Amino acid sequence: MAAAASQDWPARYFHIDQILDKPGPRTDPAFAAGDGVKDFLRTKAKILVIGAGGLGCEILANLALTGFKDIHVIDMDTIDISNLNRQFLFRQKDVGKPKATVAAEFIMKRVPGVVVTPYFGKIQDKDEDYYMQFNLVICGLDSVEARRWINATLVNMVDPENPESLKPLIDGGTEGFRGQARVILPTFTSCYECSLDMLNKQTQFPICTIANTPRLPEHCIEWASVLEWPRVFGDKKLDNDDPNDIDWLYKTALKRAREFRIEGVTWSLTQGVVKNIIPAIASTNAIIAAACCNEAFKIATSSAAFLNNYFMLIGTDGVYSYTFEHEKRQECPVCGGEALDLTISPDTTLEQLIETLTERQDIQIKKPSLSTPIQQLYLQAPPQLEAATRANLEKKVSELVSAGGEVTVTATTLPFSLSLRISYTT
Amino acid sequence: MAATNDSQTIEEATTGMESAPDQKTRRYDRQLRLWAKSGQAALESTHILVLSSSSTSTSVLKNLVLPGIGQFTILDRTITSPSDAGNNFFLEGQDSVGKPRAEEAVRLLLELNDGVKGHSIVNKDVKEVLGTEDGVEWLKGTFSLVIAHNLEKGALDQLSDVLWKDAKSPPLVVIRSAGFLAEVFIQFHEHAVIDSHLDTTPSLRIDKPFPALLKHSLEIDFENMDVTDHGHVPYVYILVRVLEEWKQAHGGNPPKTSDEKKEFKAIISKMRKKADEENFEEAEAQAFKCWSSTVVPYDIKSLFGAENVAPHTKPFHLLLKALEVYTTTVEPYTLPLSATLPDMKASTGQYVEIQRLYKDRAVEERDTFKAILDKIIAEQGEDASLIDDEVIDDFVKNSHILRLLKGKKWGALDQDKEKLAEAAASEESSKQLGIHLALSALSSLQAKRQEAEFAPTLEELTAEAKAILPEGVELPDEHFDNAIGEAARSPTADLPNTAAFLGGVVAQETIKMITKQYVPIDGYCTIDLVETWSGVL
């Protein structure tokens, strides 16, 4: 990194150095003002940014200006025209190219001396050795599943004998004028899984409404995408990024709406429902990304206490924010370790139990595999084992697991297991 | 069941249909979902003036150029220094050093959006502009909004005076920051919001059903209707019916005591023909609507009689006057009916029908409202076309969530001994006041000293801040010391993350002011990034 350091011209960090040269009234006594902390920040710190989209672009720019010189960025997406209203490292000519690569190139061109190493692919492609090399991880993801994965991976990596294995995770998210930023110290603070039940439940329309008694334009759109598309196109998968497919859905939904005298089906609504579009603007992303990078700076330099641990912002009515300490859950399957007590009826079938695991807001495990210490109850994969255990789905759980018995739940998408302790109502 | 119409041709089915969105609509899709075409049009016809090209200023501009603001002008004499080149994303490192900072920034900002125009003025500062009548007219006449980051105290006071004197002047967004501390204040006379997007749902007026609704509810043959249909009767009809029958049996009164309310719900429950009729479940859950009286909400009532202090809000005041007359002279003395219905368990036919009932009535009430408005407009000697039909519709539709903000002059707080004492004593505002005082102290000290390397001591800042407070008034130590301490630590630091944070907040507020949608901040928004905290004073 010596070559990079020499690209720092005198007074380059005039602004930041005002913070790093002196402590403030709320600075930790451990803070060592001066060259040591600057040296770490500008020549040794290694930071990973996950996501190069709305938050990611902002995060990369902020980190580069803050003085981080060794930044890695992962993103599996390519650039779309609808990104350009906020993902400011991309231009019209970049549409179709990988976000990670274009973002990295832009930052390196604009901010001298910064090295940004892109990876165009999934976070799941990388292993623990990869994540071990960083001091900090910042996420600007748009997927709950991806967040759960990285959260569990970082928590699993923590080795109490090795303080270096603890990688602080800063996570940001936005929706319209709202956003949140949080700091997770794996195994110490509440982790992402601990707060799963805070997520907004996604609107789901009952299938009978969609099939028989539509009332809203959304019902007509769901009908077109969920029922009519498979009927007309069979196995052909709907590509909701293909304007032709959206066009078909729009026209089909509109025809149905007209038949039922329902108003309100528009192109915009059609796209919105099918792609589950969340409104997004540059300003909210800027605020949340800034909050995240501010935390990264404080953690990397100890120049001020960092966020403990959850910051929420609502910008629709004035500027309203609040910060609170989200508590660790003892039965969190990722960082807690204790079993989750679950009481069910003795008549509940294994299949119904699985449905509960999918739907409960604090669990949300799709396609779970279940086992007890002595028996595989149901395995999703491989196909032979799925077939072998399928018969158990109809059986009552009380036939398979005694009261107080433990069931271990796993899923291929999640690198952790959930322990359930089953008891039955009388 | 399904009302399919097999004889409809593709042409018939697809007339009046939208074609695929154009490039611009696709680009702005994610923001159009927040402020729609009307908001976008307002943004695109705006020209803003920004009085610095600091990192915070360019950060604000980035978040306005990206969504497509019409034009911006940066007025800034600064020549890019080595320290500028280190904290500003819209400069190109050492290549920009020695060049006018505003020019560099404009060039690099314009790369973000082809549809935006940008200009730099690098040979004047705002004091010179304010020094001539032409300059003042140019400033007031050209721009819809002015943004000033860390503007020197003398210039800022002069600017805010000039803009405050004339109610037709653009709003002024004042940003001050140092290190982890910051504040944002919007100086405006009056700001009216019709499309506030606030969450409150309009009343369905179940307690005061309009004639067509009452008639329909009374005519339903619950006893003899088809069992499936019974489970698909909209709950609104059920409640109106049960309430009317209750009132007939109780001297015209709705359920009052908690026993009566229980009894009322039991009546609904007994009407079920099957245990799982969701519409009856909904009726029981919403039964309280029968005994809550629909009145004009306090938030709206308190707007009546408000004084009109700025010419651009005159139409809003006329609409408010019409609303006041409407709610006090037209039965049932509530806001005009909203046509918006929530979803509810119902057959398509029943739902579409009840929607139509509400829509027809809403149109009738809107027409009555419009007649009142036309009369008021004529009485004022204004032209009938002063207010568009679209605006009237919007106003009526949002009449339950209107907002009218009264602004204050920048700096008025620091002259108001009473308000300062109040704020210092209250837990709800002393932290904010601490930040505000620290930034005021920095600003006034810097103006007095005019030195190249401004580095005040803790003692100097403490004294300067205390001098602003009235005699004998003190802040809780913690809030005061923390703020002053941060100001002393980093008096001239425009930190990248603070700049980015402010860039988002100020752009968001600017967009609200321009689109007149959502509700802007009311007061001083103070920010402390040591604790990732914000609070309004």
UniProtKB/TrEMBL annotation, chain A:
One of its GO terms (cellular component) is nucleus. Keywords: ATP-binding, Ligase, Nucleotide-binding, Ubl conjugation pathway. The active site is at residue 208. One of its GO terms (molecular function) is NEDD8 activating enzyme activity. SUPFAM superfamilies: Activating enzymes of the ubiquitin-like proteins. CDD domains: Uba3_RUB (cd01488). It comes from the Eukaryota. Pathway: Protein modification; protein neddylation. Its EC number is 6.2.1.64. Belongs to the ubiquitin-activating E1 family. UBA3 subfamily. This is NEDD8-activating enzyme E1 catalytic subunit. It comes from Ephemerocybe angulata.
UniProtKB/TrEMBL annotation, chain B:
Residues 28-140 form the THIF-type NAD/FAD binding fold domain. One of its GO terms (cellular component) is cytoplasm. Keywords: Ubl conjugation pathway. InterPro entries: APP-BP1, ThiF/MoeB/HesA, ThiF_NAD_FAD-bd, Ubiquitin-activating_enz. Residues 1-25 are annotated as: Disordered. It comes from the Eukaryota. Pathway: Protein modification; protein neddylation. It holds the Pfam family ThiF. The keyword Membrane does not apply. One of its GO terms (biological process) is protein neddylation. Residues 1-12 have a biased composition (Polar residues). Signal peptide: none annotated. GO terms for molecular function: NEDD8 activating enzyme activity. Regulatory subunit of the dimeric UBA3-ULA1 E1 enzyme. Belongs to the ubiquitin-activating E1 family. ULA1 subfamily. This is NEDD8-activating enzyme E1 regulatory subunit. It comes from Ephemerocybe angulata. The lineage of its organism: Eukaryota, Fungi, Dikarya, Basidiomycota, Agaricomycotina.
